[in-house]
Amino acid sequence: MSTATPRLLLLDGHSLAYRAFFALPPENFSTTTGQHTNAVYGFTSMLINVLRDEKPTHIAVAFDVARHSFRTEQYAEYKAGRSASPAPFEGQISLVKEVLAALRIPVVEKAGYEADDVIATLACRARDAGFQVLICSGDRDVFQLVGDQVTVLYPIRGVSELSRMDPAAVTQRYGIGPERYRDLAALVGESSDNLPGIPGVGPKTAAKWITQFGSLDEVVEHVDEIKGKAGDSLRAGLADVLRNYQLNCLVSDLELPLAVDATLWHGWDREAVHRVFDALEFRILRERLYQYLEAVEPEAESGFDLSGAILGAGAVAGWLAEHAPTGTPVGVAVAGTFGRGTGNLTGIAVATAAGAAAWLDPAALDEADEAAVGAWLAADDRPKVLHDAKPALLAFGERGWALHGIATDTALAAYLARPDQRSYDLTDLALRYLQRELRVEAPDDGQLTLDGMGDSEEAERNLMLRARATLDLADAINAELARDGDQAQRLLREIELPLVYVLAGMERSGIAADTHYLSELEAKFAGEVKAAAQAAYEVIGREFNLGSPKQLQEILFGELNLPKTRRIKSGYTTDADALTWLYAQTQHPLLAHLLRHRDVARLKSTVDGLLKSVSDDGRIHTTFNQTVAATGRLSSTDPNLQNIPIRTEEGRLIRRAFVVSPGFETLTCPRTRR
Q: Is the pTM of this model over 0.70?
C-alpha cells in the first residue's frame, strides 16, 4: 500500500474481545496457571490479520470505561437487559490491553462516553484531515460513519471473518445509505442496547418509509399518512423512536487525550511481545506475528560491524591462522541442504569478536585449505560457537571433517534459559537479546565492509552476519544462564552438548525398516478401514462420508437422536473423545464402527508415512529434536516416531517393522570390531 494517503485503523476493544470470547470455547484456551485466554487470543488473532491485510499507518483501540454513560443518564433502561459478563471473561480485557501495550498500540477511553463515541471523534477528525479510515467494531451504530473515506470492518463470524461495509455495502444490506442508517436504527431499535423498535417493523419497512419520505424527520412529519397496523404501531411508539434517535447518535466532538497524529504506529516492543506472549502461552500467534508483520520503525540497531571477505582457494589456511588461533572463540554458520541424517554444505561463514569475518565455498577449497579447515574444526582448543550445531555436525561429517571444541550452541542455551518457547530462531533471539536486526546493509553504510565483494553477494553477507550474531548471542545468553548459578551451564556443558553428538550419530545411522512387512501391514490396515466403513454404512442403510463432521452431526444427533456432545461453533463436536463418551453412554453399534474406522485409518496413515520415509539405504533417518518439549523430553520429526502406539497390539505390530540389520548391534549402533 502506498503511504501517500495515511490510513487509520480504529477498533472497538470491548466489542471485539466479547465476540471473540463467545467464538472460542473458554475450556480450550487457558494458561498452565488456569487463566482463561479465549477472548484475548481471538482478539489478538483478529488484530494480526487486520494489520497484515490492511497495513494501517495509524492505529488506536477504544474501550468503554464503564456501563454508565451520558446515555444511561438520559434513559435508565439503556443496555439494562444485558447480563453480567461470564466469569471466564473477567480479567481478559486487562490482558488485551497488555497485548496492545506490547504492540505499542494506543488505548483511548473517555469517562461518561462509549467506545463508539471515541471512534466517531477520531474517525471524523482523521477523515477531515485526508486520512482513509477503517473501523473494526461489532456495533452496528458505527455504520452511520461510513462514507467515501470511512469503511467499517464488521465481524460476521466470531472475529475471524470481517465484512467490508462501504457505502455501497450498507445500501445493499439495508436499502438506505449510511447517512440514513441512524434513522433506520431508530425505527427498528437495537435489542442489545435495550432500545425497543416499532413492533412488526423491520429494516425493509423502515427503509421503505425513509426512502418514500426522505428522512426520519419527514417520516415523523407525515406519520398520519402511513396506513395499516404498521402505521398504528409507529404512531403509538413514536416517543420510543425519537428517544432511540437521540441515543444512537454518536458523539464526534469529544476532547480526547490522543490526537489523530499521535496514533502513528511505530511497530511493536519486541521484548514486551516476548514477555506478554510467553505469559499468555501464545506461541503460534507469536510466530504469525513475526511471519506476517514487520516493525514500521525497528527499534533495534541494524546489523553488526564486520569486516568480511570471501576466501578463495589458497586463502583459508592463512585467514584461520591469523584470526582464529588457539583459544579464540569463533562464530560459525553454515548453509546448505540438511536432513535425513546428512547434509550438503554450500557455504561456511566464520566471524570473530574483533570484527573479522569470512565466507568460503567448501567446493572451491584446495588440498591445503581442506586440511586446514579439517584441523581447525577438529581442534578442541580452538572454540567454535554455533546455532543449532547438529546439522553442521552432520554436514561436516559428510565431508570427512570432525567437529570438536563446541564452546556453546546458542539454540540449546536459549532453550535452557527459556524452555517454554516454541522456536529458537536466530533472528528472533538476536532481536531479543542483542536488540539487533539480523539483516544485510549496503556496503557503503558502515555496517558490513566486504573485501572484493559487489552488491550481489547477499547470501554470503547474511551467513557472515549469522556467524557474528551467534558469537555475540552466546555471551548474552550465557549471562542469563549464569544468573541462576551454574546448574544450567553445567546442564548445557555436561548433558545437552554431548547429546548433540549422540543424536547426530543416531540420525546418520538411521533405523532399518522391513519394507516388505510394512507393505503387508499397510494392506492389512487398508482392508480394515474399508471393513469398518462398510459396517457403518450397514447400520445406517446407506453410504456417507465418515470424515465429514457435518454429516456425522446430522446422523448422530438428527436421525439417531443420540445425546448431545459439547457445543461448538458448527454444532456438536464429533471428535474422538466425544464419540468415546457417546459409545459409553449408548453402546450404539454405529459408534463402535466409527471409532474403529478412525483407529485403523490412523494406523494406516502411520504406516504410509513410514514407507515414504525409508531412504535408499533401507533405513529411516528421523530428526531428533532437543528444543521442542519444555520438559526436556526428546521428540522426532520426519517421521514422528514417538506417535507410533505402544500400548495396543496393533501399535506393537508396527514397531516390529524396525529391525536390527546386519552390521549393527542395536537399532542405531553399528557393530564395532573387537
A: no
